[in-house]
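Regression report. Comparing outputs from two consecutive submissions.

Submission 1:
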Amino acid sequence: MGNSLKAIVAFVPSDECQKYLLEDLEEMPVDKMVDLSGRQLRRLPLHICSFRELVKLYLSDNNLNHLPPELEQLQNLQILALDFNNFKALPLVVCTLKQLCILYLGNNKLCSLPLELRLLQNLKALWIESNCLHCLPEVVCELSLLKTLHAGSNALRSLPAQLRCLRELRTIWLSSNLLSEFPPVLLDMPSLEVIDVDRNSIRFFPSLVQLPGLKLVIYDHNPCRNAPKVAKGVRRVGRWSEESPEPRKRSGAVVEITLIEKPSPSPATRLEAEAEPC
């Protein structure tokens, strides 16, 4: 079915047109997963909410800006993908799905997150990249089991001190924000394994030697004059990384050495969250 035809049919709310978009998906699949990505949907077909044993629901790349209250019936849902839609606010019904462990909200128009998000205490991976966030919502700091946080491509200038409460957090992606300094709170999070602050405005990096769990730090494309010091075995991606010397001082002046920039990992390489069972 061509995308143009899907787009036309999506405007027609009749049951026949919805079945055409869903390609006659009338019964819950054996694998307990429904993937409706890229169907030009403007509303979630209500009969999907009757699949009460559903575990994974992918609604990426549609035209959704709301969800029906009947979604609350999916109390076994563990993975919900709402990225690449038109949400300006997270529908509160999402916060009733207490078994969720992976939530994709990237590439929407979110300026905040509701306080009710704290109800998702099983959440282990939250993707809020490419939204309209000017600060990291403090409610995120109440998700005690969170292991992966992707907040890249927003307008963040700092991180809340409460973030240190996330003792299970292992990976944080903060690329393409407006950070002018390395977030001090990250220095108090010894369990972090991956820190990505690529493409910000950080001019100085503190030592990260005191982070015993650190395995990778990505700091490329910052106007920095130094590389972060790390413990032995930690990989750095950026200027003056382990493969290249830092700028050396000569007669009081800093002489920079021309380097070949190492590319940051593509988004596809970062989708390891679902490899870990909920």
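Submission 2:
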Amino acid sequence: MAMVCLTDFEEYAKEHLSKATWDYYAAGADECCTRDDNIRAYKRIRLRPRILRDVSVSDTRTTVQGTEISFPVGIAPTAFHCLAWHEGEMATARATETLNTCYITSTYSTCSVEEIAEAAPNGYRWFQLYVYRDRKLSEQLVRRVESLGFKALVLTVDVPYTGKRRDDIRNQFKLPPHLKVKNFDGVFLETGVPEEYGIPANTLDPSISWKDVYWLQSITRLPIIIKGILTKEDAELAVEHGVQGIIVSNHGGRQLDGGPASIDALAEIVDMVQGRIEVYVDGGIRTGSDVLKALALGAKCVFIGRPAVWGLAYKGEEGVREVLQILNDEFRLSMALAGCRNVAEINRNLIQFSKL
């Protein structure tokens, strides 16, 4: 079957992954209202195309944190890629290296950061980090990714506790015995503490606060990007605390159910930040026109989570490449049909909010 759009990959993955694995990737929190609204929200936004603009030549390149990427779509941090494909994150890293875009590697990878860096030595990578009760765990990860050439730290701030994902509870989700959270290999001794997503429960620190941003700045010179901001108030605090970027995100609808779709939160954050730092968005991007809408609302780049995993499930590295290439082609076409020759010409005049 020809894979024409991202939903083709979704259907393939649902058919071929085990139920527990599919449910883990698909899960939202509670009633999944926010997860589903992430997608619906894009459909409420209408475009205002301009015509007769000579779009015979188009250019999708942009920069993130001063580095050029071939188009404004990167891979968001998602856990456990080896559940979808045996090479896991190494395949994801190679695909993003080939297409010259940004891959945010998850702390919860089933390949180590060393294996990922070795698989794609010239890839442009950021590292997603949590703050743990034992700060040394976080600090050791920072040291490792610095030495491996990762270019930024993405601090996830919306998980003081893990959201209630009903299907995972029903399935009693656990990593299969042959897989583990490779970055913590040998770190946690047998403690008898129940496991939560591959590491002992209660390892994350619910006391995390803005002072931990200062702590992170004190131990690294890498740019710090905060992931999980949904309000202009927190965006202003992020700027005041000297971070280099924000990812507007609701964790794929997996944390607080009933919060805004990330695309609906984007405009107020962009307006508050006023270009002082870069703003990105993830959650619900399924087409090239979704990418165009996000950029028109002020995002510098978007990141995709679940679609990358569907690509892995389909054909590993090649599947991820196909997913990214489809988004790139669709984005280029949508951009041209809207009258834009390059990303600099995309602005909020392109957006009309529908009355629906």
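Expected: both submissions complete independently.
Actual: both completed, but the second showed a warning that disappeared on reload.
Relevant detail on submission 2: The longest helix spans residues 306-337.
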